[in-house]
Automatic annotation (TrEMBL):
This is Xylulose kinase. The keyword Glycosyltransferase does not apply. Residues 96-247 form the Carbohydrate kinase FGGY N-terminal domain. CDD domains: ASKHA_NBD_FGGY_SpXK-like. InterPro entries: ATPase_NBD (IPR043129), Carb_kinase_FGGY (IPR000577), D-XK_euk (IPR042024), FGGY_C (IPR018485), FGGY_N (IPR018484). One of its GO terms (cellular component) is cytosol. Phosphorylates D-xylulose to produce D-xylulose 5-phosphate, a molecule that may play an important role in the regulation of glucose metabolism and lipogenesis. Its EC number is 2.7.1.17. It holds the Pfam family FGGY_N. It comes from Cynoglossus semilaevis.
Amino acid sequence: MSASVHRTQGGVHLHEDRLTVTSPVLMWVKALDLLMDKMKRKGFNFSMVRSLSGSGQQHGSVFWKRGARVTLTQLDPSRTLHQLLQDCFSVSDSPVWMDSSSSQQCENLQAAVGGAQILADITGSRAYERFTGNQIAKVHQRQPEKFQNTERILLVSSFAASLFLGDYAAIDYSDGSGMNLLDIRTRCWSQICLDSTAPDLEQLLGVPLPSTSVLGPISSYFVHRYGFSESCSVVTFTGDNPASLAGMRLQQGDVTVSLGTSDTVFLWPQQLKPSLEGHIFCNPVDCQEYMALLCFKNGSLTRERIRNQCAGGSWEVFSAALRKTQLGNNGNIGFYFDIVDITPPIEGDHRFDSDDTEVSSFSPEVEVRALVEGQFMSRRVHAERLGYSTRTRVLATGGASSNSDIIQVLSDVFNAPVFTIDVSNSACLGSAYRALHGPVAESGVSFFDLLKNAPEPQLVATPHSAAEQVYAPMLKRYTRLEERILQKTRT
Ligand SMILES: Nc1ncnc2c1ncn2[C@@H]1O[C@H](COP(=O)(O)OP(=O)(O)O)[C@@H](O)[C@H]1O
Ligand SMILES: O=C(CO)[C@@H](O)[C@H](O)COP(=O)(O)O
Protein backbone atom coordinates (compact mmCIF):
# COMPACT_ATOMS: atom_id res chain seq x y z
CA MET A 1 0.00 0.00 0.00
CA SER A 2 1.43 3.37 0.95
CA ALA A 3 4.82 1.76 1.65
CA SER A 4 5.31 1.14 -2.08
CA VAL A 5 4.70 4.85 -2.90
CA HIS A 6 7.22 5.83 -0.26
CA ARG A 7 9.71 3.13 -1.38
CA THR A 8 10.30 1.78 2.11
CA GLN A 9 11.39 -1.75 2.93
CA GLY A 10 9.81 -3.25 6.02
CA GLY A 11 8.26 0.19 6.53
CA VAL A 12 11.59 2.04 6.81
CA HIS A 13 14.37 3.69 4.85
CA LEU A 14 17.81 2.35 5.73
CA HIS A 15 20.22 5.18 4.83
CA GLU A 16 23.62 4.81 3.17
CA ASP A 17 25.54 4.86 6.46
CA ARG A 18 23.50 1.74 7.44
CA LEU A 19 22.96 3.36 10.84
CA THR A 20 20.31 5.97 10.11
CA VAL A 21 16.80 4.52 9.82
CA THR A 22 13.72 6.66 9.19
CA SER A 23 10.09 6.40 8.08
CA PRO A 24 8.13 9.04 6.18
CA VAL A 25 5.68 10.46 8.69
CA LEU A 26 3.07 11.01 5.96
CA MET A 27 3.15 7.26 5.25
CA TRP A 28 1.86 6.66 8.79
CA VAL A 29 -0.84 9.31 8.28
CA LYS A 30 -1.90 7.65 5.00
CA ALA A 31 -1.98 4.26 6.69
CA LEU A 32 -4.49 5.64 9.21
CA ASP A 33 -6.61 7.11 6.38
CA LEU A 34 -6.61 3.72 4.64
CA LEU A 35 -7.47 1.81 7.81
CA MET A 36 -10.34 4.11 8.75
CA ASP A 37 -11.76 4.14 5.20
CA LYS A 38 -11.59 0.36 5.06
CA MET A 39 -13.46 0.03 8.38
CA LYS A 40 -16.08 2.48 7.13
CA ARG A 41 -16.53 0.53 3.88
CA LYS A 42 -16.95 -2.68 5.90
CA GLY A 43 -19.78 -1.00 7.83
CA PHE A 44 -18.06 -0.68 11.24
CA ASN A 45 -20.38 1.20 13.60
CA PHE A 46 -18.09 3.94 14.94
CA SER A 47 -20.91 5.51 16.98
CA MET A 48 -20.71 2.59 19.43
CA VAL A 49 -17.13 3.40 20.47
CA ARG A 50 -17.13 4.95 23.97
CA SER A 51 -13.38 5.44 24.28
CA LEU A 52 -10.30 4.55 22.29
CA SER A 53 -6.58 4.20 22.82
CA GLY A 54 -3.67 2.86 20.80
CA SER A 55 0.04 2.15 20.67
CA GLY A 56 3.03 2.83 18.47
CA GLN A 57 6.57 1.60 18.09
CA GLN A 58 8.63 3.02 20.92
CA HIS A 59 11.28 5.78 20.65
CA GLY A 60 10.38 7.08 17.13
CA SER A 61 9.76 10.84 16.96
CA VAL A 62 7.52 13.20 15.02
CA PHE A 63 8.45 16.86 14.55
CA TRP A 64 5.43 19.12 14.04
CA LYS A 65 6.15 22.35 12.16
CA ARG A 66 5.43 25.81 13.59
CA GLY A 67 1.78 26.60 12.91
CA ALA A 68 0.74 22.94 12.59
CA ARG A 69 -1.45 23.05 15.68
CA VAL A 70 -3.82 25.48 13.99
CA THR A 71 -4.24 23.04 11.08
CA LEU A 72 -4.67 20.09 13.43
CA THR A 73 -7.46 21.77 15.38
CA GLN A 74 -9.43 22.72 12.22
CA LEU A 75 -9.45 19.60 10.06
CA ASP A 76 -11.94 19.60 7.18
CA PRO A 77 -13.81 16.24 7.29
CA SER A 78 -14.31 16.15 3.50
CA ARG A 79 -10.56 15.62 2.96
CA THR A 80 -8.09 12.91 3.99
CA LEU A 81 -5.66 13.47 6.85
CA HIS A 82 -2.66 13.07 4.59
CA GLN A 83 -3.93 15.81 2.28
CA LEU A 84 -4.63 18.09 5.22
CA LEU A 85 -1.37 17.47 7.07
CA GLN A 86 1.07 17.43 4.12
CA ASP A 87 2.77 20.62 5.20
CA CYS A 88 2.67 20.08 8.95
CA PHE A 89 6.00 18.39 9.67
CA SER A 90 9.36 20.13 9.98
CA VAL A 91 11.17 16.77 9.66
CA SER A 92 9.45 14.65 7.01
CA ASP A 93 11.49 11.48 7.71
CA SER A 94 10.96 10.47 11.30
CA PRO A 95 13.79 8.71 13.15
CA VAL A 96 12.53 5.24 14.19
CA TRP A 97 13.50 2.64 16.82
CA MET A 98 15.89 0.85 14.44
CA ASP A 99 18.15 3.90 14.16
CA SER A 100 21.61 3.60 15.69
CA SER A 101 23.24 6.73 14.29
CA SER A 102 23.34 8.87 17.44
CA SER A 103 26.39 7.40 19.27
CA GLN A 104 28.03 10.80 19.60
CA GLN A 105 24.91 12.31 21.16
CA CYS A 106 24.72 9.35 23.57
CA GLU A 107 28.29 9.95 24.69
CA ASN A 108 27.59 13.65 25.16
CA LEU A 109 24.52 12.99 27.31
CA GLN A 110 26.28 10.46 29.52
CA ALA A 111 29.22 12.82 29.97
CA ALA A 112 26.87 15.69 30.87
CA VAL A 113 25.05 13.81 33.63
CA GLY A 114 28.19 12.17 35.06
CA GLY A 115 28.19 8.72 33.50
CA ALA A 116 26.11 5.87 32.10
CA GLN A 117 24.94 4.48 35.46
CA ILE A 118 23.85 7.92 36.67
CA LEU A 119 21.83 8.39 33.49
CA ALA A 120 20.29 4.93 34.05
CA ASP A 121 19.45 5.85 37.65
CA ILE A 122 17.60 8.96 36.46
CA THR A 123 15.92 7.78 33.25
CA GLY A 124 15.84 3.97 33.64
CA SER A 125 18.38 3.37 30.85
CA ARG A 126 21.95 4.28 29.96
CA ALA A 127 22.10 6.25 26.70
CA TYR A 128 20.79 4.28 23.72
CA GLU A 129 21.04 5.48 20.13
CA ARG A 130 17.36 4.87 19.37
CA PHE A 131 16.13 6.71 22.49
CA THR A 132 14.31 9.85 21.46
CA GLY A 133 16.39 12.43 23.36
CA ASN A 134 19.52 11.39 21.49
CA GLN A 135 17.63 11.50 18.20
CA ILE A 136 16.37 14.99 19.02
CA ALA A 137 19.93 16.10 19.85
CA LYS A 138 21.05 14.81 16.45
CA VAL A 139 18.29 16.70 14.60
CA HIS A 140 19.18 19.85 16.56
CA GLN A 141 22.87 19.55 15.62
CA ARG A 142 22.57 18.33 12.02
CA GLN A 143 19.38 20.04 10.85
CA PRO A 144 19.26 23.25 12.93
CA GLU A 145 16.83 25.02 10.57
CA LYS A 146 14.33 22.20 10.79
CA PHE A 147 14.71 22.13 14.56
CA GLN A 148 14.11 25.89 14.73
CA ASN A 149 10.97 25.43 12.67
CA THR A 150 9.54 22.85 15.10
CA GLU A 151 6.54 23.58 17.34
CA ARG A 152 6.07 20.21 19.09
CA ILE A 153 7.98 16.92 19.28
CA LEU A 154 5.95 13.78 19.98
CA LEU A 155 6.52 10.04 20.09
CA VAL A 156 4.84 7.84 17.48
CA SER A 157 2.21 6.89 20.07
CA SER A 158 1.30 10.45 21.14
CA PHE A 159 1.47 11.54 17.49
CA ALA A 160 -1.18 8.94 16.61
CA ALA A 161 -3.29 10.05 19.60
CA SER A 162 -3.03 13.66 18.32
CA LEU A 163 -4.64 12.66 15.03
CA PHE A 164 -7.71 11.36 16.89
CA LEU A 165 -7.74 14.21 19.40
CA GLY A 166 -7.32 16.99 16.81
CA ASP A 167 -4.71 18.60 19.05
CA TYR A 168 -1.29 17.77 20.47
CA ALA A 169 -1.62 14.76 22.79
CA ALA A 170 0.57 14.36 25.87
CA ILE A 171 3.42 11.87 25.99
CA ASP A 172 2.54 9.22 28.59
CA TYR A 173 4.93 8.23 31.40
CA SER A 174 5.49 4.72 30.11
CA ASP A 175 6.44 5.47 26.49
CA GLY A 176 8.10 8.67 27.74
CA SER A 177 10.54 6.47 29.69
CA GLY A 178 12.10 5.41 26.37
CA MET A 179 13.59 8.83 25.67
CA ASN A 180 16.54 9.23 28.11
CA LEU A 181 14.75 12.42 29.19
CA LEU A 182 12.15 11.47 31.80
CA ASP A 183 13.02 11.06 35.47
CA ILE A 184 11.27 7.73 36.12
CA ARG A 185 11.00 8.39 39.88
CA THR A 186 9.48 11.90 39.81
CA ARG A 187 7.78 11.29 36.44
CA CYS A 188 8.81 14.78 35.28
CA TRP A 189 11.28 15.70 32.57
CA SER A 190 14.82 15.65 33.99
CA GLN A 191 16.16 19.20 33.73
CA ILE A 192 19.78 18.10 33.32
CA CYS A 193 18.83 15.71 30.51
CA LEU A 194 16.69 18.34 28.75
CA ASP A 195 19.45 20.94 29.02
CA SER A 196 22.08 18.54 27.66
CA THR A 197 19.91 17.55 24.70
CA ALA A 198 18.56 20.67 22.97
CA PRO A 199 17.20 24.14 23.82
CA ASP A 200 13.56 24.81 24.73
CA LEU A 201 12.73 21.14 25.07
CA GLU A 202 10.29 21.52 27.93
CA GLN A 203 7.94 23.55 25.70
CA LEU A 204 8.59 21.36 22.68
CA LEU A 205 7.67 18.14 24.53
CA GLY A 206 4.71 19.37 26.59
CA VAL A 207 3.81 18.01 30.04
CA PRO A 208 3.96 14.19 30.34
CA LEU A 209 0.85 12.48 31.78
CA PRO A 210 -0.02 9.18 33.48
CA SER A 211 -0.61 6.40 30.94
CA THR A 212 -4.22 6.07 32.10
CA SER A 213 -5.19 9.73 31.43
CA VAL A 214 -8.21 10.69 29.39
CA LEU A 215 -7.00 13.37 26.97
CA GLY A 216 -10.40 14.64 25.88
CA PRO A 217 -13.14 13.89 23.34
CA ILE A 218 -12.40 12.70 19.81
CA SER A 219 -12.05 15.54 17.27
CA SER A 220 -15.02 16.73 15.24
CA TYR A 221 -13.15 15.52 12.11
CA PHE A 222 -13.72 11.89 13.19
CA VAL A 223 -17.26 12.62 14.33
CA HIS A 224 -18.24 14.02 10.94
CA ARG A 225 -16.14 11.88 8.63
CA TYR A 226 -16.65 8.48 10.31
CA GLY A 227 -19.65 8.89 12.61
CA PHE A 228 -17.95 8.64 16.02
CA SER A 229 -20.01 9.88 18.96
CA GLU A 230 -19.06 13.35 20.21
CA SER A 231 -18.64 11.86 23.68
CA CYS A 232 -16.08 9.22 22.61
CA SER A 233 -12.94 9.85 24.68
CA VAL A 234 -9.31 9.48 23.68
CA VAL A 235 -7.13 7.78 26.33
CA THR A 236 -3.35 8.39 26.15
CA PHE A 237 -1.64 6.14 23.65
CA THR A 238 1.54 4.34 24.73
CA GLY A 239 4.43 2.28 23.32
CA ASP A 240 3.83 -1.10 21.70
CA ASN A 241 5.63 -2.98 24.49
CA PRO A 242 3.80 -1.25 27.36
CA ALA A 243 0.52 -1.85 25.48
CA SER A 244 1.50 -5.48 25.08
CA LEU A 245 2.09 -5.77 28.84
CA ALA A 246 -1.49 -4.52 29.28
CA GLY A 247 -2.81 -6.97 26.66
CA MET A 248 -1.15 -9.95 28.34
CA ARG A 249 -2.24 -8.66 31.80
CA LEU A 250 1.28 -9.48 32.91
CA GLN A 251 1.77 -9.89 36.67
CA GLN A 252 4.82 -10.03 38.92
CA GLY A 253 6.61 -13.38 38.37
CA ASP A 254 5.55 -13.68 34.70
CA VAL A 255 7.89 -13.00 31.83
CA THR A 256 6.64 -12.01 28.36
CA VAL A 257 8.64 -12.93 25.28
CA SER A 258 7.39 -10.91 22.32
CA LEU A 259 8.37 -12.26 18.90
CA GLY A 260 7.69 -9.37 16.53
CA THR A 261 9.91 -7.43 14.13
CA SER A 262 12.11 -6.93 17.17
CA ASP A 263 12.02 -9.53 19.92
CA THR A 264 11.49 -8.11 23.37
CA VAL A 265 11.44 -9.63 26.83
CA PHE A 266 9.63 -7.82 29.60
CA LEU A 267 8.65 -8.32 33.18
CA TRP A 268 7.25 -6.50 36.20
CA PRO A 269 10.33 -5.99 38.42
CA GLN A 270 10.17 -6.41 42.19
CA GLN A 271 12.72 -3.67 42.77
CA LEU A 272 13.63 -0.52 40.94
CA LYS A 273 17.24 -1.24 40.01
CA PRO A 274 18.23 0.31 36.66
CA SER A 275 21.43 -1.16 35.21
CA LEU A 276 23.63 -0.76 32.16
CA GLU A 277 21.77 -3.48 30.25
CA GLY A 278 18.05 -3.24 29.54
CA HIS A 279 15.51 -0.59 30.38
CA ILE A 280 13.16 0.36 33.19
CA PHE A 281 9.97 2.10 32.09
CA CYS A 282 7.10 3.46 34.15
CA ASN A 283 4.37 0.82 34.21
CA PRO A 284 1.50 1.56 31.81
CA VAL A 285 -1.32 0.06 33.92
CA ASP A 286 -0.24 1.07 37.44
CA CYS A 287 1.37 4.50 37.62
CA GLN A 288 3.26 3.72 40.85
CA GLU A 289 4.98 0.65 39.39
CA TYR A 290 7.58 -0.13 36.70
CA MET A 291 8.27 -2.54 33.84
CA ALA A 292 11.67 -3.88 32.78
CA LEU A 293 12.44 -4.53 29.12
CA LEU A 294 15.15 -5.92 26.88
CA CYS A 295 15.10 -5.33 23.13
CA PHE A 296 16.71 -7.64 20.56
CA LYS A 297 16.89 -6.08 17.09
CA ASN A 298 17.41 -9.34 15.20
CA GLY A 299 14.03 -11.01 15.73
CA SER A 300 11.58 -11.96 13.00
CA LEU A 301 13.53 -10.45 10.12
CA THR A 302 16.47 -12.74 10.93
CA ARG A 303 14.14 -15.73 11.29
CA GLU A 304 12.76 -14.81 7.86
CA ARG A 305 16.29 -14.69 6.38
CA ILE A 306 17.14 -18.18 7.67
CA ARG A 307 13.70 -19.43 6.56
CA ASN A 308 14.47 -18.12 3.05
CA GLN A 309 17.99 -19.59 3.01
CA CYS A 310 17.25 -22.96 4.61
CA ALA A 311 13.53 -23.64 4.21
CA GLY A 312 12.68 -22.34 0.73
CA GLY A 313 10.79 -19.39 2.23
CA SER A 314 8.21 -21.64 3.95
CA TRP A 315 7.34 -21.48 7.67
CA GLU A 316 5.99 -25.02 7.28
CA VAL A 317 9.40 -26.35 6.13
CA PHE A 318 11.09 -24.25 8.83
CA SER A 319 8.82 -25.84 11.47
CA ALA A 320 9.44 -29.32 10.08
CA ALA A 321 13.20 -28.75 10.57
CA LEU A 322 12.55 -27.98 14.25
CA ARG A 323 10.51 -31.17 14.62
CA LYS A 324 13.16 -33.32 12.89
CA THR A 325 16.13 -32.09 14.94
CA GLN A 326 16.82 -32.91 18.56
CA LEU A 327 16.69 -30.82 21.70
CA GLY A 328 20.15 -29.30 22.09
CA ASN A 329 20.98 -29.73 18.38
CA ASN A 330 23.79 -32.22 19.16
CA GLY A 331 25.72 -29.43 20.84
CA ASN A 332 25.75 -27.07 17.84
CA ILE A 333 25.18 -23.43 18.79
CA GLY A 334 24.59 -20.46 16.46
CA PHE A 335 24.46 -16.66 16.74
CA TYR A 336 22.67 -14.82 13.90
CA PHE A 337 22.70 -11.03 13.72
CA ASP A 338 21.83 -9.29 10.41
CA ILE A 339 22.52 -5.88 11.95
CA VAL A 340 24.41 -4.87 15.08
CA ASP A 341 22.09 -5.82 17.91
CA ILE A 342 21.20 -3.93 21.06
CA THR A 343 21.41 -6.97 23.35
CA PRO A 344 24.31 -7.76 22.91
CA PRO A 345 26.09 -5.49 20.37
CA ILE A 346 27.10 -8.29 17.98
CA GLU A 347 26.83 -8.48 14.17
CA GLY A 348 27.13 -11.39 11.71
CA ASP A 349 26.63 -15.16 11.89
CA HIS A 350 28.78 -17.25 14.24
CA ARG A 351 28.48 -21.05 14.40
CA PHE A 352 30.10 -23.42 16.92
CA ASP A 353 30.16 -27.22 17.07
CA SER A 354 29.87 -29.24 20.29
CA ASP A 355 33.59 -28.63 21.05
CA ASP A 356 33.09 -24.85 20.83
CA THR A 357 35.10 -24.81 17.61
CA GLU A 358 33.91 -22.14 15.17
CA VAL A 359 32.59 -23.70 11.93
CA SER A 360 31.56 -21.99 8.70
CA SER A 361 28.24 -23.74 8.06
CA PHE A 362 25.56 -26.11 9.34
CA SER A 363 23.16 -28.28 7.37
CA PRO A 364 19.88 -26.42 6.69
CA GLU A 365 17.96 -28.27 9.43
CA VAL A 366 20.69 -27.80 12.03
CA GLU A 367 20.88 -24.13 11.03
CA VAL A 368 17.16 -23.61 11.66
CA ARG A 369 17.35 -25.17 15.16
CA ALA A 370 20.61 -23.35 15.95
CA LEU A 371 18.92 -20.04 15.10
CA VAL A 372 15.81 -20.60 17.22
CA GLU A 373 17.64 -22.20 20.18
CA GLY A 374 20.32 -19.49 20.03
CA GLN A 375 17.76 -16.68 20.02
CA PHE A 376 15.91 -18.15 23.00
CA MET A 377 19.09 -18.91 24.96
CA SER A 378 20.00 -15.27 24.47
CA ARG A 379 16.53 -14.15 25.65
CA ARG A 380 16.84 -16.32 28.81
CA VAL A 381 20.46 -15.44 29.67
CA HIS A 382 19.78 -11.71 29.40
CA ALA A 383 16.38 -11.95 31.16
CA GLU A 384 18.13 -13.60 34.11
CA ARG A 385 20.51 -10.66 34.32
CA LEU A 386 17.46 -8.39 34.42
CA GLY A 387 16.00 -10.23 37.42
CA TYR A 388 14.01 -13.10 35.86
CA SER A 389 14.52 -16.13 38.08
CA THR A 390 11.31 -17.91 38.88
CA ARG A 391 10.36 -20.73 36.57
CA THR A 392 6.73 -19.64 36.43
CA ARG A 393 4.91 -18.97 33.21
CA VAL A 394 6.27 -17.50 30.00
CA LEU A 395 3.73 -15.44 28.07
CA ALA A 396 4.42 -15.42 24.32
CA THR A 397 3.13 -12.84 21.87
CA GLY A 398 3.97 -11.22 18.50
CA GLY A 399 3.75 -12.63 14.97
CA ALA A 400 5.97 -15.69 15.51
CA SER A 401 4.04 -16.79 18.63
CA SER A 402 1.48 -18.35 16.26
CA ASN A 403 4.12 -20.97 15.30
CA SER A 404 3.74 -23.92 17.69
CA ASP A 405 7.15 -25.45 16.85
CA ILE A 406 8.95 -22.20 17.64
CA ILE A 407 6.95 -21.97 20.89
CA GLN A 408 7.94 -25.53 21.86
CA VAL A 409 11.63 -24.53 21.63
CA LEU A 410 10.86 -21.45 23.75
CA SER A 411 9.28 -23.67 26.41
CA ASP A 412 12.23 -26.10 26.36
CA VAL A 413 14.92 -23.42 26.56
CA PHE A 414 13.14 -21.58 29.41
CA ASN A 415 12.12 -24.92 30.98
CA ALA A 416 8.74 -23.36 31.67
CA PRO A 417 5.16 -23.63 30.43
CA VAL A 418 4.29 -21.15 27.68
CA PHE A 419 0.93 -19.38 27.47
CA THR A 420 -0.53 -17.23 24.71
CA ILE A 421 -3.68 -15.19 24.30
CA ASP A 422 -5.88 -15.91 21.32
CA VAL A 423 -4.78 -12.79 19.42
CA SER A 424 -1.10 -12.60 18.51
CA ASN A 425 -1.32 -8.77 18.55
CA SER A 426 -1.36 -8.22 22.30
CA ALA A 427 -0.46 -4.52 21.88
CA CYS A 428 -3.75 -4.02 20.07
CA LEU A 429 -5.74 -5.90 22.71
CA GLY A 430 -3.88 -4.00 25.44
CA SER A 431 -4.91 -0.72 23.82
CA ALA A 432 -8.56 -1.78 23.93
CA TYR A 433 -8.19 -2.74 27.62
CA ARG A 434 -6.53 0.60 28.34
CA ALA A 435 -9.33 2.45 26.54
CA LEU A 436 -11.77 0.72 28.88
CA HIS A 437 -9.67 1.45 31.97
CA GLY A 438 -8.80 5.14 31.29
CA PRO A 439 -12.26 6.62 32.01
CA VAL A 440 -12.54 4.80 35.39
CA ALA A 441 -8.89 4.92 36.48
CA GLU A 442 -9.20 8.28 38.22
CA SER A 443 -11.96 6.98 40.46
CA GLY A 444 -9.50 4.36 41.73
CA VAL A 445 -10.61 1.24 39.80
CA SER A 446 -7.54 -0.93 39.21
CA PHE A 447 -6.73 -2.32 35.77
CA PHE A 448 -6.73 -5.89 37.06
CA ASP A 449 -10.06 -5.58 38.89
CA LEU A 450 -11.70 -4.12 35.83
CA LEU A 451 -10.43 -6.96 33.64
CA LYS A 452 -10.77 -9.87 36.04
CA ASN A 453 -13.26 -11.59 33.74
CA ALA A 454 -11.25 -11.13 30.54
CA PRO A 455 -10.12 -14.41 28.90
CA GLU A 456 -7.06 -15.95 30.56
CA PRO A 457 -3.94 -16.83 28.52
CA GLN A 458 -4.02 -20.46 27.35
CA LEU A 459 -1.31 -23.08 27.90
CA VAL A 460 0.26 -23.89 24.51
CA ALA A 461 3.50 -25.71 25.36
CA THR A 462 5.12 -27.52 28.28
CA PRO A 463 8.83 -28.25 28.47
CA HIS A 464 10.25 -31.64 27.49
CA SER A 465 11.27 -33.71 30.54
CA ALA A 466 14.94 -33.55 29.43
CA ALA A 467 14.91 -29.79 28.85
CA GLU A 468 16.80 -28.68 31.95
CA GLN A 469 19.42 -31.41 31.59
CA VAL A 470 20.07 -30.40 27.98
CA TYR A 471 19.91 -26.62 28.26
CA ALA A 472 21.51 -25.93 31.68
CA PRO A 473 25.03 -26.72 30.33
CA MET A 474 24.23 -25.19 26.94
CA LEU A 475 23.19 -21.89 28.53
CA LYS A 476 26.59 -21.75 30.24
CA ARG A 477 28.33 -22.45 26.92
CA TYR A 478 26.15 -19.85 25.19
CA THR A 479 27.18 -17.21 27.76
CA ARG A 480 30.88 -18.06 27.29
CA LEU A 481 30.65 -18.04 23.50
CA GLU A 482 28.77 -14.74 23.46
CA GLU A 483 31.54 -13.21 25.57
CA ARG A 484 34.14 -14.67 23.18
CA ILE A 485 32.42 -13.03 20.18
CA LEU A 486 32.09 -9.74 22.03
CA GLN A 487 35.80 -9.76 22.89
CA LYS A 488 36.69 -10.46 19.27
CA THR A 489 34.46 -7.56 18.20
CA ARG A 490 36.18 -5.20 20.66
CA THR A 491 39.71 -5.99 19.39
N1 LIG B 1 3.99 -18.81 11.14
C1 LIG B 1 4.97 -17.98 11.48
N2 LIG B 1 6.13 -18.48 11.96
C2 LIG B 1 7.13 -17.65 12.33
N3 LIG B 1 7.07 -16.30 12.24
C3 LIG B 1 5.93 -15.75 11.77
C4 LIG B 1 4.83 -16.56 11.37
N4 LIG B 1 3.85 -15.71 10.95
C5 LIG B 1 4.33 -14.44 11.08
N5 LIG B 1 5.58 -14.45 11.57
C6 LIG B 1 6.48 -13.32 11.81
O1 LIG B 1 5.81 -12.31 12.53
C7 LIG B 1 6.39 -11.05 12.19
C8 LIG B 1 5.45 -9.89 12.50
O2 LIG B 1 5.23 -9.84 13.88
P1 LIG B 1 4.38 -8.63 14.52
O3 LIG B 1 4.30 -8.90 15.98
O4 LIG B 1 3.12 -8.47 13.77
O5 LIG B 1 5.35 -7.40 14.17
P2 LIG B 1 5.61 -5.98 14.88
O6 LIG B 1 6.61 -6.24 15.98
O7 LIG B 1 6.25 -5.14 13.79
O8 LIG B 1 4.29 -5.49 15.37
C9 LIG B 1 6.71 -11.17 10.71
O9 LIG B 1 7.86 -10.40 10.41
C10 LIG B 1 6.91 -12.67 10.50
O10 LIG B 1 8.29 -12.94 10.32
O1 LIG C 1 12.80 -0.48 20.43
C1 LIG C 1 11.95 -1.25 20.85
C2 LIG C 1 11.71 -1.42 22.29
O2 LIG C 1 12.63 -0.75 23.10
C3 LIG C 1 11.05 -1.97 19.85
O3 LIG C 1 10.43 -3.08 20.45
C4 LIG C 1 10.04 -1.01 19.28
O4 LIG C 1 9.11 -0.67 20.31
C5 LIG C 1 9.26 -1.48 18.05
O5 LIG C 1 9.33 -2.79 17.79
P1 LIG C 1 8.44 -3.64 16.71
O6 LIG C 1 7.04 -3.66 17.24
O7 LIG C 1 8.55 -2.95 15.40
O8 LIG C 1 9.07 -4.97 16.79
